[in-house]
Amino acid sequence: MNPFINLGIRHDIVNAISELGFENPTPIQEQSIPVLLTGSNDFVGLAQTGTGKTAAFGLPLLELLDFEVNHPQALVLCPTRELCLQITNDIKNYAKKMNNVNVVAVYGGASIQDQLRQIKRGVQIVVATPGRMLDIINRKAIDFSQVKFVVLDEADEMLNMGFQEDIDSILSTTPDEKKTWLFSATMPSEVRRIAKKYMDNPFELTMGEKNTGNVNIDHEYYVVRARDKYAAFKRIVDNNPSIFGIVFCRTKIETQEIAESLMKDGYNADSLHGDLSQQQRDKVMKRYRERSLQLLIATDVAARGIDVNDVTHVINYSLPDEIENYTHRSGRTARAGKTGVSIAIINSKELGKIRQIERTIGKKFIKAEIPTGFDVCEKQLFSLLHKVHNVTVNEEQIEQYIPRIMDEFKDLDKEQVIKRFASIEFNRFLDYYQNAPDLNAPADDFRTRDGERGERGMRDAGGKSEYTRLFINLGSVDEFNRGDLLGYICNNSKISGRTVGKIDVKGVYSFFEVSNGDVDQVVNNFKGVEFKGREVRIEISGEGTSTTRTGGGERREGGYQRREGGGGFNRERSGGGERREGGFNRDRNKSAGGGGFRDFSGKPREERPERRRRF
Ligand code: AMP
Questions:
Q1: Could you tell me if 381 and 365 lie in one domain?
Q2: 332 CB less than 6 Å from ligand 1?
Q3: Angle formed by the axes of helices 81-94 and 53-64, to 10°?
Q4: Of the four, 120, 241, 394, 473, which is 20 to 30 A from 458 by CA?
Q5: What is the CA radius of gyration of the chain?
Q6: Amino acid 212: pLDDT
Q7: What is the mean pLDDT for each group of 10 consecutive residues in the chain (615 residues)?
Q8: Cα–Cα distance for residue pair 72/92, rounded to 1 Å
Q9: Which of ligand 1's atoms lies nearest the C-alpha of 56?
Q10: Is the Cβ atom of 73 under 6 angstroms away from ligand 1?
Q11: Would you say the C-alpha torsion 351, 214, 152, 188 has a positive or negative sign?
């Protein structure tokens, strides 16, 4: 039985939401639906966007209203046209198997006549943005005297957008005895004030800590010099080949410029801002929703209310002026129980702002390093190979070409063919990233505005972090977990699991902390180790130290150039010098350790002596 039944939702609604894939209530639905179904409380729900708020109030409304009569009984106010359409659509979907349910969307930028006509025909639920709603009220075209419930959705956003007075005027036309349900992602004092003003002893529900961001979002920041910002941004994007992201800029002009530069540079990006016509905005959003656009470059205002699931990254190309806006931006990812990353690209003067945001969201940022050109090439290569490996082959269509394809490759063995396929995309990145400099702002830049030493400098100056953060190239996609890591460390060294600090398993990589004194032992212990067929790579992460090492080699010094001389994949091009100590050069020297390029640089795997230990 669908658990929504136990919450008190009737069968025809449950059947409809089951078809939408709602098998279990989200936490906010579980906790708010029973309260709201009583119909006798004012209510304040502090919850992020994407947590299932719409059903949390939408389902109780469908239970509580009388659909035998056709006058407005519920008014939902929300900040944007997008959200308005979405809520209307959602409620209509929940009510798909009910009769006589009339929901009208009232919003600006569309024909008011159509909306007036729909209202005239009869409506029980009005979903509206404040400006257009007030316009219709002023035309005396709607009667709210029998409204029983008012929902203020994304109340903080509505206040941010300056709708306070409009909301006051609208609510003054509704009966005093109505119940008000307020939802907000954050609870600044302005929202507290309206809660006080309109509500009588409301039932308060806080999902997670007050002002805490979504726990499924990882927050990362990168420190770069202003002049390197765009290049650093592109590198972050390139290092995430399957990114589906929203990039926030501070102004319309910046939004437009970044989008244009990206398009010129061959990225699948477009902009969304207030200078576009509604039609243009709809078009961009349609492409983004359909995923024919990979990067949406947006201003805060234009991106409000965007509900697209599966956004993998939110990138703050510029930090917002208002800290509250950071929560709204990051809330565009990790929706509906998914995970996501919110990235801030900052200069060293903005570290203070990061600390402020940390206090507001109640969560720490991870300081990340702009990947080297080499890292990006490696990432892109394996992403491509993964795609090739998993591609669906249309046997029927391709069959006719097979003889010609075979003929084309008849002089090449399997390894040579693979190398050539891999190189098609790879060479593009290789060309671009040759000589790519290190874009991380040097430690000397880490001074705060008032001259204090910043985080990295402080540590260098003896600011005592007991732990060093290590990067490992394994993550949840490798079915790698904390237990695997702890087990391996403890079984292969004299280190106790208790001295291992925070372990942060991510998608394709992870971070873990070990005591400073244990670092060398741990790094050495992972040399030449393999996990489920993947060679393990450990590096000291940028946080806590200013050098990053690969199996003992100094990686940051020479950046990409240095690697190029000795890199496995360069052998074909340059013959390769033996300049680099660590990583895959080792492999070619047939010593322990080595990078992921083994299969492309040396002999076929099966011919090589097995040196790696399994983990
Ligand atoms: P909302 O916070 O209402 O915008 O919801 C975010 C997303 O989660 C929307 O795509 C909803 O369709 C989806 N959703 C809401 N509740 C559930 C549920 N109980 N099970 C699965 N998906 C849900």
A1: no
A2: no
A3: 50
A4: 473
A5: 28
A6: 45
A7: 91 95 90 94 85 94 96 95 92 96 94 96 97 96 97 88 90 96 85 86 73 71 92 93 93 92 91 85 90 92 78 93 85 77 92 86 85 84 85 90 92 87 77 78 48 33 64 81 80 74 78 85 86 83 37 26 24 27 27 26 30 48
A8: 15
A9: 3
A10: no
A11: negative
Q: Which residues pair with 183 in a beta bridge?
A: 45
Q: For residue 335, report the distance from its CA to the centre of ligand 1, in Å.
A: 8
The backbone region for 201, taken as left when phi is positive above 0, alpha when psi lies in -120 to 50, beta otherwise, is left
382 and 364 in one domain?
no
pTM: 0.48
> Does residue 450 form part of some domain?
no
- 272 close to 308: Cβ distance less than 8 angstroms: no
Residues 34 and 113 in one domain: yes
pLDDT tens string 248-284? 998 989 999 999 999 988 899 999 888 888 888 888 9
531's CB contacts (< 8 A; 6+ apart) are 474, 478, 480, 484, 614, 615
Same domain, 154 and 261: no
24 three-class SS: coil
Query: In b/e form, how buried is each residue of 77-111, taking b as 16+ CB within 10 angstroms?
Result: bbbbbbbbbbbbebbbebbeeeeebbbbbbbbeee
pLDDT at res. 574: 29
User: What is the phi/psi pair of residue 543, to 5°?
Assistant: -75, 130
- 218 sits in the region (left: phi over 0; alpha: psi -120 to 50; else beta) called beta
- 126/141 same-domain check: yes
Q: Which two tokens stand for residue 48?
A: 């992020």
Among 315, 320, 305, smallest CA distance to 157 is for 305
285 and 405 share one domain: no
Residue 519 tokens read as 């670092």
Burial class (CB in 10 A: 0-12, 13-18, 19+), 543: buried
Protein residue whose Cα sits closest to atom 11 of ligand 1: 52
Examine the domain organization and report whether 262 and 152 are in the same domain. no
**Which residue owns the Cα nearest ligand 1 atom 4?**
50
309 C-alpha vs ligand 1 centroid, how far in Å? 9
Q: Is 547 in the pocket of ligand 1 (CB under 6 A)?
A: no
Instruction: Name the domain count of the chain.
Output: 4
Residue 601: give the domain boundaries: 467-607
Return the exposure string of 554-567: e unless at least 16 CB atoms fall within 10 Å of the residue's CB, then b: ebbebbbebbbbbb
In a domain, 461, yes or no: no
Q: CA–CA separation, 321 vs 314, rounded Å?
A: 16
Q: Give the residue among 86, 142, 80 at the shortest CA–CA distance from 116.
A: 142
Is the CB of residue 569 less than 8 Å from the CB of residue 600? Answer: yes
Tell me how far apart the alpha carbons of residues 313 and 301 are, in angstroms, rounded to a whole number: 18
The pLDDT score that the predictor gives to residue 580 is 27
Nearest CA among 314, 239, 288, 412 for reference residue 48:
314
